[in-house]
Every structure is written in C-alpha cells, then in structure tokens.
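Quick one:
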Amino acid sequence: MTQSIKRRPTRAVRIGKVTVGGDAPVVVQSMTNTDTADHVATAVQCAELARAGSELVRITVNTPEAAAAVPKIREQLDRMGVDVPLIGDFHYNGHRLLLDHPACAEALAKYRINPGNVGFGRKKDEQFAQMIELACRYDKPVRIGVNWGSLDQDLLARMMDENAKRPEPLDSVEMMHAAMVASALESAAKAEELGLPAERIILSCKVSGVQDLIAIYRALSAKSDYALHLGLTEAGMGSKGIVASTAAMGVLLQDGIGDTIRVSLTPEPGGSRTQEVIVAQEMLQTMGLRAFTPMVTACPGCGRTTSTFFQELAQTIQEHVRARMPQWREQYDGAENMTLAVMGCIVNGPGESKHANIGISLPGTGEAPAAPVFEDGVKTVTLRGDNIAEEFTAIVDAYVARTYQRKNPHA
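Output:
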C-alpha cells in the first residue's frame, strides 16, 4: 500500500524478530487474559492471537508460578511453530521475579515496567534500577508504560507544589497530562543513565479518555524521539471500545505519531480475544498504513434492497478472505492489497464494483435477477440462480491465483 501519512522520526527498537519505530510499519500487539501459570492455556491463546495477526503478545507475569511458566510457554510456542515475541507485563514485584527466574528473563523478548508501581518510597528507585540492570544483562528492550490509574504519586506531588507557585497555574487536567509526560521522560532518562540504550526504550502514556490521550501523546512526541506505543486503556466493550480506540489512535496516527498499537477491548462473554487484533489491523488498513487482508466494501442497504442476500454474501466473502489470507500470504505476493465490493442494487453497485479489483452488483427491488461481476473494472460474467455465493467465491480464488505473483513457484 502507498504510505500517505508521514510518520514522525523515532528510534528503531528490535524486539525479537520485530522492529518497532524507525522506518518500520506500525506494529500490532495484543495481550492474553489467561492465567499465565497455566502455560498450556496461555500458549494456546498466544498462538491464536499471533495467527490472527498480533505481531507482539504481552503476558502477565505477576507471581513466581507465572514467571516459572514463561519459558514453558516459549517452548510450547516454538513447538507449535509460532515465533511471536513475548512481552512480560510487570507490576510491583518485577525486579524480584526477573532476578529469581533467569529463564523467564531470558525467554521474554521485552519487559514492560510501570514507573508508578515499580516500587514505593525509598525502594522505588532501587527496584526500578534492578529491572533496568536486568534488561541490560539480558539485552532486552523495555517499555516504560505510564498509566493514569497508577501515576507516580511522589512525582505528582512534586509537580503540584511547583505548579502552585506559578503565576498562572495549570488546571487539574493539564497537570495530569504534564505529570504523565514527565513520568515517562524522567524514567527513560534514568534508564539511560543506568546503561539502557535509547534504542531499547519504548514509551507509553495510557489513559481512558480520547482527548486526554491525544493531548498527552502530542506533547510526548514533541519532546522525545523514543518509539511510542499507543493504546487507550480500559477502552470498554463492543462498539464503545472500538469507536473510542479508533477515534483516539486514528487522530494520532494521522499526525504520524505511534509506532506500535494495542486496542484494549473488553471481550464479550465467551468472545474471542482476537477481536482486538482484527480491529487494530482494520484501523491501520483503512487509514492506508498497512495491508493485512483483502478489504470488502459492502452496501449498507436501503429500501431498494429488500433481500438480505447481499449482507450474507458480504459476510461470507469477508470471512472467506480472512480465512484464506494465511495461505495466500505464504503463496502470493500482494494478495492482502486486493479490494472487493458486494453491492445491493443498481444505484452504486456497478460503479463501486468497477472501482474494486473484484466486485459484484446484486439485484435490488424490481431489478432483473442478475448479478454482473467486474474484475479490474471490466465486466467478466453475470451470475444467476441459487449458487451465486459459491460461484463468486470461486471467482475470487481464481483471481488471486491468476493475478498475484507466486512465491517459490518451483517449490
């Protein structure tokens, strides 16, 4: 895909096989919600997320049992042929877990540290230093992840005292923004003083308000060239979480801010954790930043479209191309850039179908029972009868095989 948004220059950070920042494309990541101590269940979910397209997967490391399970998770994933890098999410006791479980420290590809709860009082600086020193020892990058729900209270108190002495003090919202940015940057500076190179530091400042996130990241990006992880924390469930996340991150990505993203959705009861990966991919793809799977343009329906068949066909085609994409990615170059259109009547049907690589214009109310198919703007066939879905799916498969160059054609 053509890159139309100019990204802000950041330092490139290598995380296992994945590069974040620099000239690398925006990276999609996710997080498991299994009990990490259950290494089989956690490995299975990591694999599901990776196969859905998560390029980095974060796991909770909160107990000795969880830390002991991390190398087992890595081994299980390797046996499954899933080489996704694992990120350890640490709070409160990360220094002790990494020190006591060197196999865990080695198996993880990156550590996430929250400066607001890495330690308290006199122990805070010591325990932060221990984690950074371990990251240096094992040659691991670190995400310094500030969260407004666990902001460093000592730093906040200091900044509030300073703010009170200003001729024109900041209001409470502005103070929160400034404190989060300061926490991230001061922690990064400490990490560098302790020997961690800037090329192994990623920053994040997560909040749950859209306008807060935008303001904080604009300020953070203006003051540093560290790679940045974007995410609206506690985004919520269903459409609310999707809309809030895309509203916030879409603005920042349009500004060229953000090197890796996570959509923190609350899954529906019994729902798949992979939804957050799909939403992140679709956000990047609809903005023209990445291409992951063929996109389907579909008619919303109106009084001219009395049949629901176009809705069913659009769903069938979307599910088909997403299911086939892992195989197509292995076999063909560029299939993820394919566009499809499933339209419901003559008003916009032929025009939209001609704009797509492959499109079908289904008959609306009072129209002849025929569905012309267009390939690269040219009408190639008209489908009729009860097997339109199967025939159109076969046309899509044939188009991919005919149009996109095969990888390893002699294999």
